[in-house]
Design a protein that fits this description.
CATH architecture: Beta Barrel
Radius of gyration: 18 Å
CATH class: Mainly Beta
CATH topology: Porin
Order of helices and strands: HEEEEEEEE
Number of strands: 8
Number of helices: 1
Strand content: over 45%
Length: 197
């Protein structure tokens, strides 16, 4: 990717992140939260072709940290998926994501439906294990979009269901695996615990 385009992308990420952090910080009723989750990837380049009826689910896990006001919120989310591209003899793979997301998360009693979108890092790794002569690591700038529902059982503890789509801006080279698109993309379904404070 040309340097001037990469520079603009990072500048846009920083500007959006700063604006929503500032907006959240000025709201006296904002709640911080921690949300560990578990899920699986599907569609695009994931080993699961669709969200349902998949026999080859590869688990991922991670955590989101952020803040929610009466309408808007912001989160930093980190996730890791082992064997993302599936399994094959002598080949291993993984995908790590680190995303900064803006949230629209209105409070409707104990339930908070939400939409989110943001940008960040999508890092893929693939390795031919016997001698590790063939290894590919791709660090790509990418974006995600999604939504879900948070339901609080108490004022501070609840559960969260979530579906997101991830897409990289840059081409990736994946050793030993066939990918549908050189720009890595996939969906993710997850369930999480959420603790607000």
């Amino acid at each position: 990717m040309p340097k001037h385009i990469r520079g603009r992308s990072w500048l846009a990420l920083v500007a959006v992140s700063a604006a929503f952090i500032a907006a959240s910080a000025t709201d006296a009723r904002a709640q911080g939260f921690v949300s560990p989750f578990i899920g699986y990837d599907f569609g695009g380049d994931a080993s699961c072709p669709q969200i349902t009826n998949c026999q080859d689910k590869r688990m991922n896990y991670g955590v989101a940290l952020g803040t929610m006001g009466p309408i808007f919120g912001f989160e930093e989310e980190f996730a890791y998926a082992k064997d993302f591209f599936g399994t094959a003899p002598t080949l291993t793979s993984s995908v790590f994501t680190a995303m900064s997301n803006v949230m629209v998360v209105p409070r409707i009693g104990p339930v908070r439906p939400y939409l989110l979108g943001g940008m960040g890092l999508i890092k893929s790794h693939a390795e031919f294990t016997p001698v590790s002569l063939l290894t590919s690591d791709n660090n790509s700038f990418g974006w995600d979009v999604g939504g879900g529902v948070i339901a609080f059982a108490t004022p501070h503890v609840g559960v969260r269901g979530d579906i997101r789509y991830f897409h990289a801006f840059q081409d990736a080279t994946i050793v030993g695996f066939i990918v549908q698109n050189p720009k890595l993309d996939f969906g993710r379904a997850s369930i999480a615990l959420i603790v607000a404070f």
